[in-house]
Amino acid sequence: MALVVVGSVAYDGVETPHGKVDRMLGGAATYIALAASYFTPVKIVAVVGDDFARDDAGLLESRGIDLAGLERVPGGKTFFWEGVYSADMNDRTTLRTDLNVFADFSPKLPESYREEPYLLLGNIQPALQRSVRAQMPGLKLTGGDTMNYWINDYRGELLETIREWDFLLVNDAEARLLSGQHNLRRAAARILEMGPHTLVIKRGEYGAVLFRGAGTTEGHFMAHGYLLEDVFDPTGAGDCFAGGFIGYLAGRGIDARDRQIDFAELRRAVIYGSVMGSFCCEKFGVDRFRTLEREEIESRYREFQTCTAF
Amino acid sequence: MALVVVGSVAYDGVETPHGKVDRMLGGAATYIALAASYFTPVKIVAVVGDDFARDDAGLLESRGIDLAGLERVPGGKTFFWEGVYSADMNDRTTLRTDLNVFADFSPKLPESYREEPYLLLGNIQPALQRSVRAQMPGLKLTGGDTMNYWINDYRGELLETIREWDFLLVNDAEARLLSGQHNLRRAAARILEMGPHTLVIKRGEYGAVLFRGAGTTEGHFMAHGYLLEDVFDPTGAGDCFAGGFIGYLAGRGIDARDRQIDFAELRRAVIYGSVMGSFCCEKFGVDRFRTLEREEIESRYREFQTCTAF
Fold it and tell me: Tell me, what's the pLDDT at A260?
């Protein structure tokens, strides 16, 4: 009963007001898988070059993550991204993007992955996301995210893809772009007509909002962002939100085939997503996951309750 | 047992993506008083010119607001402000500020106001805020707000003033400027060393965070902003938050002289503040308060509970 995560495994160069790292393990699938691994078994589908370090594979394996679907391209180089954050860390500028082996990424599902019930499709070309889903006949819950590039230039393909999803995770700007509506409630109502019955709009440090429904919203849930004392590096926080969100639901054995996920479970999933995103920011890159324990996660979940109940 | 509100009563010209009004009733004290009037009796201290319309006084009086402290300067003109909002209404540009009679505002407390227990000091010169407080010997709860101008150019005076307050209401940027700390938790800890035992950081559409403590924070409360279906005009929303916040506490008879306000009451006050700010945005200027009923406020408070509990 594992979760399959599809997306990028990469090396990142990151500069924040707190420091600079030239090259470290990154990529959406990496962050999603690490965060989800605290809740459920995880299997990765991604591609790397032969520069992918043994230690980095080791970190993923140490969290029990299955790497049978991690394709290694001989002579190839791993996706590299470099960026610098603004002083308040709410904006970042990309300095360099070398797609390398990720440019020709064609997800290959190992036989051992195909019967799994949970699927998180990271931000890749919509047609590829769809092809993965088509190879998994026993899915109980499917969701993923996307980005402005696919929304603008691959709209038809994207709409065909997300029509089959149970949930979509996007940020404010993506929700507005996808729906053509500025107001978030109107944007959500429009997106819920596109297929997913659950929509999570991530708002960075300000939190997240979850909408449920079909066509019209049946209800929503608002969570303020966790207030960290120190934010070292926000890279991967949104992906860790996604990992915590679906990881929690997978761990609970949620079955969305009748499109009726218990709203209370979805709310908890949003909070676990926020918790995982907050931990991610406490150290550079994936470093926080080298030491993070499940009990710390539960403790922060309870802190969320204390700080939001009225 | 009334609340005294000191600040500006003004005319505003406002343009938002939804329309344009050349001249309408505005000013911080107006919004604060209107919002608070749903919870407690309110008495205004402000100054206007003889162009102040009978109908506008009538609106305030219709909410039971005492205008004995509304000074009218013969031959003078009322403070006028004009601004235009950005497409997403998160930024605004001031086009014109005519202080007029507000330039020489020296708050005069009618005898009938001096024994009141609640005081909200709107954004005026810190020394004037202090002089008002000094004239009210029976205060049970005092708070107010300020702005970047006073923080930058009247820092000493401002620090002397807020030292005597029970609570301070500021936005993110003001909290950072006042504390010299970017991180909100660190900023809050620094500000709580300056005197107030309660700090509310308003985050616009993203909500508000409340901190309590002395020196170190004893705890905090986070509230996501209410998601409106239509935002017509955000002018005054922050002031309405302030009005709802202190109005609720005044209506509950809170006595902060021992500096021990029940945290649960403070949390509810933050939500009522958010509720009043959200109503304010639904129509231009103060128009929403022409029809708003207390039952609508209670209904939205309950909606906040439904949308945030987990």
Answer: 83
Other CB atoms closer than 10 Å to residue B142's CB: what's the count? 23
Residues 6+ apart with CB under 8 A from B170: B145, B146, B178, B191, B199, B200, B201, B202
What span, in angstroms and rounded, lies between the C-alpha atoms of A172 and A201? Answer: 6
Tokens of B119: 């005081």
Bin B270: left if φ > 0, else alpha if -120 < ψ < 50, else beta: alpha
Are the C-beta atoms of residues B199 and B192 closer than 8 Å to each other? yes
- Cβ separation of A220 and B203 shorter than 8 Å? no
CA of A186, closest CA in chain B: separation in Å? 7
CB within 8 A of A218, min separation 6: which ones?
A212
Specify the range with the lowest mean pLDDT, choosing from A106-115, A192-201, B253-262. B253-262
| B248: Cα within 13 Å, side-chain hemisphere | 24
Q: 3-state DSSP call for residue A118? A: strand
Complex ipTM, two decimals?
Answer: 0.93
Kindly state the DSSP code that residue A262 receives in the 8-state scheme.
-
DSSP code of residue A77: -
The span from the CA of A3 to the CA of A113, in Å, is 9
How far apart CA A298 and CA A275 sit, in angstroms, is 9
Query: Would the CB atoms of A184 and B230 count as touching at under 8 Å?
Result: no
Q: Provide the shortest C-alpha distance from residue B18 to chain A (in Å).
A: 13
Pairwise CB contact (< 8 Å): A310 & B268 = yes
B216 pLDDT band, cuts 50/70/90, is: low
Q: Is the pTM of this model over 0.80?
A: yes
Q: Are A133 and A114 in contact (CB under 8 A)?
A: no
Using the Cβ of A307 and the Cβ atoms of chain B, whether some distance falls under 8 Å is answered with yes
Chains A and B form CB pairs within 8 A to the count of 86
Contact between B60 and B35 under an 8 Å Cβ cutoff? The reply is: no
pLDDT in tens, B3-33: 999 999 999 999 999 999 999 999 999 999 9
**CA B52 – CA B74 distance, rounded (Å):** 11
CA distance A147 to A169: 10
Residues 207-236 of B with CB under 8 A from A: 207, 209, 219-225, 227-231
Whether the per-residue pLDDT at A105 is higher than 70: the answer is yes
> Three-class SS of residue A139?
coil
Alpha helices in A27-115 (DSSP H): 28-36, 54-62
DSSP A224-240: EPP--S-----TTHHHH
Whether residue B215 is predicted with pLDDT greater than 60 in this model: the reply is no
Decide if A221 and B271 are in contact by the 8 Å CB cutoff. no
Residue of B98, B140, B99, B85 lying closest to B118 (CA atoms): B140
pLDDT at A216 > cutoff 80: no
pLDDT tens digits, B129-160: 999 999 999 999 999 999 999 999 999 999 99
A173 touching chain B per CB within 8 A: no
What does the pLDDT look like over A228-259, one tens digit per residue?
A: 998 999 999 999 999 999 999 999 999 999 88
Mean pLDDT confidence for B257-284: 95
Whether residue A308 and residue B306 make contact (CB cut-off 8 A), yes or no, is: no
Those residues with Cβ within 8 angstroms of residue B160's Cβ, 6 or more apart along the chain or in another chain? B126, B130
